[in-house]
Amino acid sequence: MRSRDELSRFLKRSRSRIRPEDVGLPAGERRRAKGLRREEVAALAGMSVTWYTWFEQGRDVKLSAAMLERLSSAVRLTGEERAYLFALAQHRPPPLAPIADDTVSPSVQHMLDALPIPAQVLSDDWTVIAWNRAATLVFRDYSRLAKHDRNLLKLLVAPDSEAASNESYRDRVRRLTARLRWDYGRSARPEVLDTLIDEMLAKSPVFAEFWEKMEIAAHFEGVHSINVSAVGEIKFRHTSFAIEQKPTQRLLVFSPLDTADAERLRHLMERASALG
C-alpha cells in the first residue's frame, strides 16, 4: 500500500536527522548512516526492536495511540509531523495534545480583525484568548479583564438569583452545560475542566441542576439577543468552528440575524470609529 511505503520513508527520514548526542547517546562511535539506529529508536520509545523494525518496514502491524505518542517523542516530531504519523498509521487525527495552547497565530488574529462582525477564539478550557473590535463593542472589553476572568462559561453563567427563574437564561445555561460535557469527554486536559466544573457547581445552582441531567451537545449554535446601550437590541446567530492548525481552539462567530440587526451593528461600529 502506498501509505505503508510513505510511513516507512517518513520514519527512516525522521530518525536519520537526529544526532545521537541530541538524545544522550555516545557521539563518537562509528556509524554507517546518519542519525539513530532502529534499536535506539525502539529503546527511546519503549518498544521491542522487532516490533519497531516491522512497523518501519511497512508491515501490517498496529501501534496503540500511546505507542505512537512515545515514538513521536523519541524522534522529536513537530506537531504537524505527529499528526502526519497518526494519519499514516491509524488513518485518523491524533489525540488532542495535553498542553495549554492559549495563543492564536498571526493569521487568525488578522482574520478576526478583518471581520466586521463579532468574533472571538476560545482555548480548550473556555478562556477567551483572542477577539476583535466588534466583540469588544457588543459584549465586553476583554483586554480589561484578567485571564482567569475571561472564561466564557463563568461570564455567561454568572450566579444571579433573579435570572435563575428566567427561561431564556435557563435555556442558555442548559445548552452551555451540554456543550461543556461534550468538550470534557474530548479534552486532553480534563483536570483543567474539573477545576472549572467544581467552581461552577459551587457557585451556580442552575449549572448544577443541568450538569446532573447529563445532556450532551456536540454543537453550540443558536440565536440570542443583546442590548447594546448605544443602539439598542441586536439579535445574533452564533456558530463555532475548529481552527485547523490548533484543534484545541474554537472560533465563535456572531452574525446579525437580519438586515435591521446588521444596520444596528454597522451604526455601532461607525459610531465607535467616529469617537476614536
Keywords:
276 residues; alpha+beta; 434 Repressor (Amino-terminal Domain); five-stranded antiparallel sheet; 5 strands
Task: Report on the architecture of this protein.
By secondary structure, the chain is an alpha+beta fold. It folds into 2 domains: 2-90, 434 Repressor (Amino-terminal Domain) (Orthogonal Bundle); 106-275, Beta-Lactamase (2-Layer Sandwich), CATH 3.30.450.180. Helices cover 47% and strands 14% of the residues. It has helices spanning 2-16, 38-45, 49-56, 65-74, 79-90, 106-114, 133-138, 152-156, 167-186, 190-203, 205-211, 259-275; strands at residues 119-122, 128-131, 222-228, 232-243, 246-256. It has a 5-stranded antiparallel β-sheet. Helix 2 (38-45) crosses helix 4 (65-74), helix 4 (65-74) packs across helix 5 and helix 9 (167-186) crosses helix 11 (205-211). The longest helix has 20 residues, at 167-186. The N and C termini lie far apart (61 Å).
